[in-house]
Amino acid sequence: MTNRKYTLGIEFGSTRIKAVLIDELFKPVASGSYEWENKLENGYWTYDLETVWAGLQQAYKVLAAEYKEQTNETLTKIDAIGFSGMMHGYLPFDKSGTLLTPFRTWRNTTTETAAKELTDLFQFNIPQRWSIAHLHQAVIDNEPHIRQIDFLTTLAGYVHWKLTGRKVLGVGEAAGMFPIDSDSGSYDTTMMDLYEKQTAQSDKSWTLEKILPDVLQAGESAGELTEEGARLIDPSGQLNSGAQLCPPEGDAGTGMVATNAVAARTGNVSAGTSVFSMIVLEEALSSYYEEIDMVTTPSGKPTAMVHCNNFTTDINAWARLFKELVESLSLEVSSDKLFNTLFKKALEADADNGGLMSCNYYSGEPITGFEEGRPMFLQMPDSTLSLANFMRTHIYSALATLKLGMDILTLKEQVTVDQLLGHGGFFKTEHVGQQLMADALNVPVSVMESAGEGGPWGMALLASYMISKDENEKLEDFLAVKVFSSQDIDTLKPTEEGNKQFSTFLDRYKDMLEVEKTAVKQLRH
C-alpha cells in the first residue's frame, strides 16, 4: 500500500454499478459491482437516489474485500478516483440541495417537442435524452419546480458533487447536457444566448450559465474526497479522505478511453443489443444532422455519435429458438457454443445470402425514421434458405442501420476513419462479427483483449492520467504510449468482395424498409 499508487474508477451503468481498482501499471487489482434496475414511475423511467448510495457502498465493499483477500491488507488510501455514469438525464436541485423531481433518465422519450424546438433554434441536433431537452420540456410544460432550480446535473455530476462539494463535469459528459464549443472547450455561449432570448417570457429566475456545472478537461483536478464523501463510499470508516478526483465523465467517454479511441480519425463501436459508434473528428461538421449526435472526447475533441436502438436483439431471439429445438431433441449445447457455431456459419453464405432479407427492428429507429419496429424475415420463392445464408442475412441486417448513419459522416462530410476499435458481445466469436463489420463499414476493425474491462477501467485510467501524466502530455499520447503500447491488437481489414456483397445487400435493405413501414402501419399490437 505504501509504495504503490491506486486509482479507482466507478461507473453507474443502466443495469450495474461497477468499481475497478487499478495499480500504477493500469492493471485491475480488485473489483466489485451491484445490480440495479430502473423503474417506471408516474410516466418516467427513474432510479432512487437512495439506491445510488446503497449500490455504490455495496460495490466498494465487495472491491475492498477482494483487495484484502488478495493482499492481506486493508484498503485505506486511494490516490485518485473518478466517477462516470449513464449520460444525459435530468437531476434539478434547489438552493438547499433538495432534488426537485425524481431522476429522469436518458431512457425517457417525453421531450420530443422540446428537442425539435431546440434543434430548430440552435441549428444543431438536440436528442430527446439530452439534459437541455428535459429542462426545456419542463419549461414548456410550466412545471412548478422550474422556478426553484438552482443547479442541474447528471448522475455522475451528482455523485461527484456530494463527494467533493464541487459542481463540475468533464467535457465529454457536459456535451450531453448542452452543446459544447470545440474552440473554447465549454458550453456554446451563442446557443446559450439564443436560449435565454427564447425563454425570456418564461416563469424562471435562472440562466443556464448559473445552473449548469462548470466544465473541466481530462487531466484537470476536480477536487478532493471530503471526510463526508469518504463515509458515503465506505461507511465502515476505513477509507481515508483526501483522494484526488478527476472530472466526472459519461459512459460514452469512458468507452472511448477503454478502447484507446480518443485521437482524431479513430473511433470505437460498442456492439450489443444496441450499437453506437463514436468517431473522433479532425474538425466540426459543416452542418447538423438529426441522425448524428455531436459530443466530445474527455479532452474536448469533437466526436460524432451514431446510435442505433436495434442490433443483436433479433439474432438473440433466433438463437433462443434454435436452443429450444436442440433441447427438445434431448441434446445439450451451451449458449457460447451455439452462438459461435451460428456466427461461423455466416462465413459460408452464398454471395447474395441466398436472396434472403430481414429487418431487426424490435423498437423504433431514429436514423431511418421509425417510431416503432416489427422484426421481419423475408424470402423470395427462388431464395436459398440455408443456415449460413440465414445467419449472414441477420448479421448484415444488424449492421445496415449503423452503415446508413456512418455514410452521413463518410460520404456527406468526407470524414476519414483510420480504424474502429470494437467491443461488446458481437465480437465474442473470433473474427466473424469483426470481419463482417469491417466489410460493411469499409473500415479496418480492431479488437483488444482489454476492451472487455469496460467503462469503469476507462474511468480509472482518466483518474490515473490526472495524477501520472507528464507536463503537457495529451490524453491520446498517455493512452497510446503508457497504457496500450504493450496491448495485443487484432485488426481485420475490409475485403473487396465482402464490401461488394454488403453493398448489394444494403440496396435491397433500403427497398425492404418500405415493407417495414407497411408492417408497422398495418400490424398493430
Care to describe what's here?
The protein is an alpha/beta fold. The chain has three domains: 7-247, Nucleotidyltransferase, domain 5 (2-Layer Sandwich); 259-309 and 413-491, ATPase, nucleotide binding domain (Nucleotidyltransferase, domain 5, 2-Layer Sandwich), CATH 3.30.420; 313-405 and 495-522, no CATH class. 38% of the residues lie in helices and 20% in strands. The strands form eight sheets. It has a seven-stranded mixed sheet, with helices on both faces. Strands 1, 2, 3, 6, 13 and 14 form a six-stranded mixed sheet that branches. α12 (387-412) crosses α13 (432-441). The longest helix has 27 residues, at 496-522. The chain is globular, with a radius of gyration of 23 Å. It starts with 6 loop residues before the first strand and ends with a helix. The mean pLDDT is 94.
In a nutshell, what does this entry contain?
It comes from Alkalibacterium indicireducens. GO terms for molecular function: kinase activity. 38% of the residues lie in helices and 20% in strands.
